[in-house]
Amino acid sequence: MRIASLILACVLLGACAPSNQEVRLAKAAEYDPREYAAVYEACKAAMVESGYEIAGEDLEHGILVSSWRWYTKEGTAKRKEAPKVENGATMFRIAVELARGPKGGLVVHVDGGAQGYSTGSPVLREFKHDDPEEPTWVEGKIDNLAVGIHTKLSQFELHASVPGATPAAPATPAPATPAPAN
């Protein structure tokens, strides 16, 4: 019975995770810039529906940031009020930013940050995305929200360039800084 429950849990968890193609589509999608306020509100609603508490927002600049929350090593959210912080516990928050896309539409950038607690150090260690110590569930939470937002915004998705819109300028690399003279 216990093995059957474990198999069922694995199947259900796998069914909830977005595919690589869904993540790519969500991250590449552009939305109608004339619907900026509706896109912003849909992003906010998707964050709240995904269990994130909005800690900060800026409609004018298209930014939404969740509160930091403690998670277990496995990525399960801990209770919000005075959670037990044991070795391996991680704080995580997620943010959304609306920006101009290459076709002139709005793109939704979703990213998150994590900091981990280790016994013996009162200071949390910040994880970078290329850090092998970053919990594996961090990228999954980011991808899940990106796909959830994309699903919610399907009615605003552009399938061609926006007529009369100015496409985003390509990023220009920063000039090389010369080494200081000795």
Question: Overview of this structure, please?
Answer:
There is one protein chain. The longest helix is centred in the C-terminal third of the chain and has 16 residues, at 137-152. Mean pLDDT is 84; it is low at 1-15 and 169-182. Strands 1, 2, 3, 4, 5 and 6 form a 6-stranded antiparallel sheet that branches. By secondary structure, the chain is α+β, with helices and mostly antiparallel strands. The protein is 30% helix and 20% strand. The protein has a single domain (18-156), classed as Alpha-D-Glucose-1,6-Bisphosphate, Chain A, domain 4 (2-Layer Sandwich).
Spell out the key features of this protein.
182 residues, alpha+beta, 6 strands, 30% helix, disordered C terminus
How would you summarize what this structure contains?
With 182 residues, the chain is α+β, with helices and mostly antiparallel strands.
Biggest beta sheet summary? 6 strands, antiparallel
The fold-level CATH name is: Alpha-D-Glucose-1,6-Bisphosphate, Chain A, domain 4
Oligomerization category of the chains in this entry = single chain
Order of helices and strands: HHHEEEEEEH
